[in-house]
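@channel sequence for tomorrow's demo:
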Amino acid sequence: MVQLVYNQGGNMTMNKNKSYIAAFGYSLFVGLSFLITKLVVPYASPMLILAHRFTISLGVFLLFLVFTKPKIEMTRKKILAILPITLFYPLLFFALQVYGLKSASSSEAGIIFATVLILTIIISALFGNHPSKTQSLCIILSVTGVILIFTKTFPL
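structure tokens (generated this afternoon):
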């Protein structure tokens, strides 16, 4: 794995707050990127959307590197270890997402996207990592909520 080493120094509460802010930011970013991709698909080709998406990501990452100056410890062994993940998550996942959003409705895509949580649990269980009862409950509630909202069986 790539390790970013920082001199944090702060207390545990500050680190916990940063974790919550990071989780919220990630959720917001994923949700907005999903929505924006769905809105842009009728007007641009999937490859053009992916090109813009990766260009923007590179720009944000470079800004992160310039302003935070993390010490990145990379070895050949670490690069080879994360190479399969880089092929599957960013490249394959985003390509399939854009092509899927071109063919599916937003409701269908939301339900499919929610099932990623379930697939993550199943795959992690194959590697011996079992979720806690709390994690399982939260995932079940998340997926159920998405299905209820998108199928409009839950009166809001």
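heads up for whoever presents: The two ends are 43 Å apart (CA to CA).
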